[in-house]
Amino acid sequence: MVETLNHSAEALRHLFETQDGKFQSIRTIGWANFEQTGWPTRRDEEYKFTALDAIFKRNIDFSTSGFGYSIGKEYIQSKFYPVEGHHLVFVNGNFNKSWSSISGASLDISSFEDLNSEDLMKIVDQFGDDRASVSINRAFLSNGIAIRVGKSEESLPVFIYHFRDASESTTLSFPFIHVHAAENARIRLYEKSFSIGSHVHFASHFTGIEVERNANVQFTKIQELEKRDYTLDNLFVKQHENSHFFSNTFSLSGGLIRNNIEITMDGEHSEANMYGLYFLDGHSHVDNHTVVDHRFPNCDSNEMYKGIVDENSTAVFNGKIFVRQPAQKTNAFQANNNISLSDTATIHTKPQLEIWADDVKCSHGCTIGQLDNEALFYLQSRGIKPALAKAMMLGAFAVESLDHINMDIIKEEISQHIYSRLGV
Amino acid sequence: MIKIENLHASIEDKEILRGINLEVNAGEVHAIMGPNGSGKSTLASVLAGREEYEVTAGSVQFDGEALLELAADERARKGIFLAFQYPIEIPGVSTTNFLKTALNQIRESKGLQPLNAVDFLKRMKERMSWVEIDQSLLSRSLNEGFSGGEKKRNEIFQMAMLEPKLAILDETDSGLDIDALKIVANGVNKLKSADNATLVVTHYQRLLDYIVPDFVHVLYDGRIVKSGDKTLAMKLEAEGYDWIKEEMAV
Q: Of B250, B182, B236, whose CA–CA distance to B38 is shortest?
């Protein structure tokens, strides 16, 4: 029988109580909310296929967890992409300014420790709700960052590296990132997380992005994690008139990953694009829940998530699109296409459209399939061995998701990861 | 080169080929003609190794080897090439990349080194001109968004790149206008040598004006019922297939 680990709010209390400092009022509210809700169970509709309570009970013992780390600057900086830009380092959820590399003045980056309480409160209050993954992030609010791109500025690319060091014991991280792109500003952010050490790590990420008029923000997330790594990730986006937002989410490995993306269209003529790829094996469990809330007319949203699931992995996709009554002339497109390579892999996919406006174009589609036999035969009929033909087809299916990334080194890295796993 | 004896094949328990006998030697062009549903495409598919068809009797020797024992990709590496009647679109795989992979797999099976990038491009350039295919088409996803004619030219281009011993053209003329037909035929003729052979499967005679066959066979109801030279194709063009059907009914 599986031993029941102490995964509950109670087990985290000792950590909460040893916290101090200026974040205390935010933490107290977060903790109170978390204590009240606890982890979602399968009875919670939003967590039906990702019952955090049960998953954590089997895998995480919070009673012995902490924030300690042993990695150093040299190792961390060896992971930086050799690209001109801002390289921001988080270690177990805390921003580390001295290990980061910030170049030029096109960007204003403040750590939460440097912000006054009033500004910090504004940032934390702008987004979020009282779901457990948000509350827990608040309850352990760490040294996050606020990134500001000024009016009509174009920032150098921003690389955010999260080092999850679990070398000594079970560790936790609760990073918080807030991005504000002023009118006409442009910024591209690339976020990557690293698993270090052999113990369990639990992370609850929170990112809030405000995209002002005519601004353009691209956010790419790479999740290539160990099997003993558990991630809850919330990304909240608010778009104003004429703004553009792109997200790319690559979930390549990990024990559990739950990504929530919620985009609110708060001005006319804005456009949101969400692309995702998950490529899972072993017992990985990846759940992407997305929401686009169309509140103003003449906005477009496009969403395309693709997945390959193998072995005993599980993928969950839920895409909600709300088109409110004033949001006439909305164009909303959504697709989730999956390929299953194993009889023991599981896919749950659900589009959910709620439309109150009458003059809109909305389409959605979910597919779960195997590779096209005709196409495989075609490749084989030219002398290509079946295993290679299959790998070529899967690679082609997957790397299409890289089309929307404007950073060659990252495209190349993910493409190599995919093809090397496929054995090509 | 290839010797087909008493070949029977079925799909979903329906017998389509009912005892085909055919021998093709190096340097020869054979045409297989016949009315719709006579089994022409089935023959092409069975030779290429399409798995939906079940061979229930007979044998096929290819260069002295039992062809039917081999999987489709092994047959291709031994020198069989099927130009598809309906070439498949494969998003995300460029023609160039696909051909490089195929060519190198074939070379590897012959114990040859992969072709280097310069030689590969040289070979591409040369053979692109044979079928008047454009470079921009080849860097796109394989057959995706190609017109019918472009797809057929791409088939012959692939054949030119892979240099098979036995090329089987399955209704390559269908859907082509006369100019495209000439280009395709021109490509096929360029490849013709004393060491290879071509099997042209077609419903109409017009392709045979440009790819001149040494032998013409009429397939009817799963058997070759008549063989002759190119004048047989002309007779079929002039008189249709009814006289064959009548002869068979007697």
A: B236
